[in-house]
Design brief:
Layout (H helix, E strand, L loop, with lengths): L1 H7 L1 H20 L8 H24 L7 H17 L4 H25 L4 H20 L18 H25 L1 H11 L1 H6 L4 H24 L14 H11 L11 H20 L6 H23 L1
Helix pairs in contact: 2-12, 3-7, 3-10, 3-11, 3-12, 4-5, 4-6, 4-10, 5-10, 7-8, 8-10, 11-12, 11-13
């Protein structure tokens, strides 16, 4: 049983080992990393990535991809800022923002599940459309004069930071339970493994595909909220710094197979933790920060190559 578990969760165990190794290197080469509150900063910065990674895990498990999440996040952040500036309370802002995310996710879902457009093409198109639309709409101007309960949810910085982490943890826990114990979660795995076999078993693959894109949009909206509340204004360029690359890299390095049907949210969590720590570790180890994107790209390439090798071996 132990051997079977280790084989089934080899990627998660490997990522956990790599994370432990990274912390060991930091303990030897940059011990001040552990005495500056850096872990708290990593937790807060990684919370939006984790929420988006939850949605991306569902999408990739179903053998799809969504590269438009950076643009979705930006549009949802703008929506949150506009609602707050209009005087709505934070609960209304949150519901409205998630609603915008659901609509954007439904757009991608319709393109892929209904019109049968390959997800890489559909989400590339929506990425460009959303990004250029928001640039045309406000020319990159900051959204200011937000409600008093917007920044840090009106709790103050200390409590608000932990509220951000708690929300991300709650979203992760809810979806982790759903994927493992709810029939809809098992349907995602079934469709990703073999859509035709899933159809013969009574599952509707198109409906599952549409649903995972809708949930991806909702998660992008949640990530937008957790990002936007950290500042007293909303930057419409939020999400344009390679957010989608960071999320996809975290998910695939955590063992979610790009070929679909295999992987866990725990693996995605480990991937978020590893890559979030790498970002800070580069600074403490005196390495140029631009290597972060190169590392993320290399990780995606390695993960895809590994999945191809495993499928051929099977």
């Amino acid at each position: 049983m132990t051997t079977t578990f280790a084989r089934r969760h080899l990627r998660e165990i490997s990522v956990g080992g790599a994370y432990a190794l990274l912390l060991g290197v930091l303990a030897v080469r940059a011990p001040r990393f552990f005495s500056t509150g850096e872990f708290a900063d990593i937790l807060i910065a990684s919370a939006p990535v984790l929420v988006a990674a939850v949605g991306m895990t569902l999408v990739i498990l179903s053998r799809q991809i969504d590269i438009s999440i950076g643009s979705q996040l930006a549009v949802c952040a703008i929506a949150a800022g506009l609602l707050s500036r209009a005087g709505y309370s934070m609960p209304v802002v949150a519901v409205g923002t998630v609603g915008v995310g659901v609509v954007l996710g439904a757009l991608n879902g319709a393109l892929v599940a209904v019109l049968n457009i390959p997800s890489i093409v559909a989400t590339l198109a929506t990425l460009v459309m959303l990004r250029e639309a928001k640039r045309w709409w406000n020319q990159g101007a900051m959204i200011k004069d937000l409600g008093a309960d917007f920044q840090w949810f009106g709790l103050g910085q200390a409590a608000g930071q932990w509220a951000v982490v708690a929300v991300a943890a709650g979203v992760f826990a809810a979806f982790a339970v759903g994927l493992r114990f709810v029939a809809a979660g098992r349907a995602v795995y079934a469709v990703g493994s073999d859509a035709e076999a899933a159809r013969l078993a009574g599952i509707r693959p198109r409906r599952v595909t549409f649903a995972v894109f809708v949930l991806m949009g909702a998660c992008a909206a949640g990530a937008a909220l957790l990002t936007a509340v950290r500042l007293p204004h909303v930057d419409p360029k939020t999400g344009e710094g390679g957010f989608e690359l960071a999320v996809i890299a975290a998910v695939v390095v955590g063992g979610v197979a790009v070929s679909g049907g295999r992987g866990t949210l725990v693996g995605a969590l480990l991937g978020v933790a590893l890559l979030g720590t790498v970002r800070s570790a580069l600074v403490f180890l005196g390495t140029e920060p631009y290597w972060e994107k190169a590392i993320q790209g290399g990780i995606i390439l390695f993960a895809v190559a590994t999945d191809v090798f495993i499928r051929k071996a099977e």
